[in-house]
Structure formats: C-alpha cells, structure tokens
Design goal:
Blueprint: H1 4-94, H2 96-115
C-alpha cells in the first residue's frame, strides 16, 4: 500500500499541475479574446470614421454643386431681368407718345382708387 500512496500523491500533484496549466490557458484565451474584441472594435471604429469622412466629403461636394447651380440660375434670371428692362426702355424710347398716354391712364386709374371716386 505504501507504494500506491506515493503514486496517488504523484498523480494528485500532476493533476494539480494540469489544473494550473489549464487555468493559465483559460486566462490566456480570455485575454486573447478581449484583445481581439478590442482590435475588432477599433478596426470597426476606424472604418466607420472613414465612412463618415467620405460622406462628409460627398455632402460638401453635393452642396457646392447645388450652390453653383443656384448661382448660375440666379445669374441667368438676373440677365433676363436686365433684358426685360432694356426692352421696356427701348419701347418707351421708340414710342414716347404711346408711353405717355399709357402712364397717364394708369395714373388716372390709380388716382380713382385712392380717392374712391367713380367717374
């Protein structure tokens, strides 16, 4: 029996050693998993940050293009307004008597509305 006791004690020590190695391995695996999770989160965060930067750039490009279109359209409307005014001026210069009669009639109608008299 005495020979079996040292064998049992030796087996218990081997078992304890195996349990310590197992514990160390589990701790290592947990740390590794945490590290990988952290790396994955950081990579995902970097990708999202990159996407947001790209979206910001695209939004700025779209905004600047829209601004250019609005400015172009405004410039075209402004030019058209100048053309209309010049055409009116040209019409007044070519037909001064007609323009005078139209202005007189408009003034008469306006005066009638202001004084509220009916003729």
């Amino acid at each position: 029996m005495e020979t079996s006791k040292p064998k049992v004690n030796e087996d218990i020590e081997i078992l304890k050693s195996d349990v310590r190695r197992l514990r160390a391995d589990v701790v290592g695996i947990v740390h590794s998993a945490k590290s990988r999770s952290k790396d994955t989160v950081m990579e995902t965060s970097d990708r999202i940050r990159g996407m947001m930067t790209d979206l910001g750039g695209k939004a700025a490009d779209i905004g600047s293009k829209a601004k250019e279109q609005v400015l172009d359209r405004t410039e075209a409307l402004k030019d058209r307004g100048y053309e209309v005014v010049e055409n009116w001026r040209g019409g007044i210069e070519h037909r001064p008597v007609t323009s005078l009669l139209v202005a007189f009639a408009a003034g008469l109608v306006f005066a009638m509305f202001i004084t509220r008299r009916r003729y």
